[in-house]
Amino acid sequence: MHDCPTCRVPLHGHEEVCPSCGTRQRVSKSYSGLLKGQPKKPPVNMLPFVVAFFALGVGGFVLMKSSWIGKLMARGPVQVDPMDKLSWLEARQMLYSKIDEGLKSVGSTGEYTWTSGGNPADINAPGPVELNVKTELADPNSRRQIMDPAKEFMYKAQVPSVVMNDTKTNATWTYSVQAPAVAPAGGAAGGGSEEAPPEE
Length: 200
Description:
Elements: E1 2-3, E2 10-11, H1 29-35, H2 47-66, H3 68-75, H4 88-105, E3 110-116, E4 119-121, E5 130-135, H5 142-151, E6 161-166, E7 171-176
Parallel strand pairs: 5-6
Antiparallel strand pairs: 1-2, 3-4, 3-5, 6-7
Helix pairs in contact: 2-3, 4-5
């Protein structure tokens, strides 16, 4: 204990300010620890929590891989065939465009005749149609350069056969695919056969 140096009021030694006159006091060392509060608790060991969290993460990952989510992730993005987005008319226009581009690339032009069941038709005719291309080729082997980029559109375009006539050599080449099933009016196509590769 000690007295306040200003007003001489007896103090216990832990007061920071004299309750009588308000003078600041020097706190004795024995009480300074009490004023600062209780000693800090030892830190919590986080290692068991980290190990448990890691184990849960690994277990969850293994379980997820065997679930439908894991199978979906392993499969990756679904490959979409660009041909599926085309209508038969768009595919037919692409077929015509590819043949025309091929002819121009070898310095030729073509005369196009569309038929359906042996009757005259046009590029917009519904249902399967055949295409006859009359041209004059400087090199008969250039037909492959003309037709190879176009053949993939034949099935979707509902063009089961393309006949190319070379008036210079009197040669005829026929490219054909299996004709797609035609949907009845107001209904869906039945069967849905697989696409057959074009044959020369």
